Amino acid sequence: MRVLVTGAGGQLGHDTVAACERAGDTVIAADRAVVDVTDRDAVLGAITSAQPDAVINCAAWTAVDACEDDPDRALLANGMAVRHVAEACHRVGAHLVHVGTDYVFDGSLDRPYHEWDDTNPQSVYGMTKLLGEREALALGPAAAVVRTSWVCGEHGNNMVKTVLRLVDSHPQLAFVDDQVGHPTFTADLGPVLRQVALDRRSGVMHLTNQSAVSWYEFVREIVRLVGRDPDATVRPISTADLQPPRPAPRPANSVLDNAVARMTGMAPMRDFRDPLAELVRVLTA
User: pTM (2 decimals)?
Assistant: First the structure.
């Protein structure tokens, strides 16, 4: 397969490129220096020149709180940019796999969200990512939107790296216990995105590692893996107790039911604890 990966410099893009290369694909790793997805002419030029079989769009502006302060930039990066990518895919007949987010939901449901649940984003980030989904899905069967959550990997900033940095300099950490989700690891998600592209799957899919935890429980597991006592090191707080308060609302329930994957026979991704342990070993080596 000949595949172009946008956002190739980010943590998910990096591991998606690696997964495609391991599988023997011809890969065009399009980081921001190669293709600025907010520039229509650049996107059309790159994709029509490369003539890929598939485009995996990992490019996004994921600074959730910063999006609240600059909605125009968020709309351009997370919404309009996807229109450019979709237009280019249509011109060359490439299958589009676009990466979405749990933030398209308001988090109020009392069960995991499946792919047919109504969206209701509460933040600028979530709203603009939802608009990006619509731009991708305008391609019909030639596009898939893969929603995921709580993404962590070796490359880029994420919660695992934050905790590893803080645990050596703070006697006690406080994390919220009223936000629940599925931690998802790029080393596992990248190969699955490639498979979605190879199979030319369409529509909305939820793909995450398995087992739901709160941020507090997730941090306890990271602390345990580095040999610290979670009871002594991490204490729970509520979102309302965060100081300073976060500008962007977070969904209380970010748990995504991988219903489409399950119904169509895709093997579930691993329990998050396995790739977490692997990542901690790499980052602390």
Answer: 0.97
